[in-house]
């Protein structure tokens, strides 16, 4: 919980705003995928197609992914509230999600690069996609590292009640 009389650091506000934006986008994406999955399932069941099961499976998978995105989006919105209010649990969750984001993007950059390199010899391949994939992952990794660094600053930890004293408040 935040210390009384201590104002919220500007960086925490920025992180909270970005978090709520991601949350809202995830909620909308989740709802869209749930609706899309329901529509695909209904269409595939009502047609005389020879592959109605494939449509149903695709619809269920889309709805399932949508439900996961919906829950994640709600979680991000709750987390942004906790960040704005200086809740210690929000600080902890943000650190954990940032570390997970770093790990996912490292793996993503490596696997995407391997896939793209193996696909370079095919006709539809674009060699510049290797560089753009790695660049995108690197940007996300840097953002997550900056968030972790910032959240470990003394004045930020004091705001979240993770430190009891402000040794050097200008850091």
Describe this entry's structure for a reader.
Helices cover 78% and strands 0% of the residues. It is mainly α. It has 2 domains: 1-85; 87-171. Helix 1 (10-46) packs antiparallel against helix 2 (52-85), helix 2 (52-85) crosses helix 3 and helix 3 runs antiparallel to helix 4. The longest helix has 37 residues, at 10-46. The radius of gyration is 21 Å and the shape is flat. The model has no long low-confidence stretch (mean pLDDT 83).
Q: How are the elements arranged and paired?
A:
Blueprint: H1 10-46, H2 52-85, H3 88-119, H4 128-151, H5 154-159
Helix pairs in contact: 1-2, 2-3, 3-4
Summarize the structure.
This protein is mainly alpha-helical and 171 residues long. The chain is built from 5 helices and no strands.
Question: Tally of extended strands?
Answer: 0
Category by helix and strand content: mainly alpha
| Rg estimate, integer Å | 21 Å
Distance between the termini: 21 Å
User: Approximately how much helix is present in the residues?
Assistant: over 70%
Output the helix-strand order: HHHHH
Number of domains: 2
Poorly predicted runs are none
Mean pLDDT: 83
Oligomer: single chain
DSSP summary: helix tally = 5
Q: What overall form do the CA principal axes indicate?
A: flat
What does the main sheet amount to?
Answer: none
Strand composition percent: under 5%
Describe this protein with a few key phrases.
single chain; 171 residues; mainly alpha; 5 helices
């Amino acid at each position: 919980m935040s210390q009384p009389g201590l104002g919220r650091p500007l960086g925490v506000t920025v992180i909270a705003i970005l978090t709520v934006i991601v949350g809202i986008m995830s909620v909308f994406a989740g709802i869209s995928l749930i609706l899309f999955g329901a529509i695909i399932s209904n269409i595939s069941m009502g047609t005389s197609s020879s592959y109605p099961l494939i449509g149903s499976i695709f619809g269920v998978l889309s709805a399932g992914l949508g439900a996961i995105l919906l829950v994640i989006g709600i979680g991000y919105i709750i987390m942004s509230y906790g960040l704005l209010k200086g809740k210690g649990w929000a600080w902890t969750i943000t650190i954990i999600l940032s570390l997970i984001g770093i790990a996912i993007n490292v793996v993503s950059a490596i696997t995407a690069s391997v896939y793209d390199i193996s696909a370079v010899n095919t006709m539809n391949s674009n060699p510049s996609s290797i560089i753009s994939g790695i660049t995108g992952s690197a940007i996300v990794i840097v953002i997550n590292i900056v968030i972790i660094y910032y959240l470990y600053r003394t004045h930020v930890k004091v705001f979240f009640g993770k430190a009891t004293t402000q040794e050097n408040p200008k850091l």
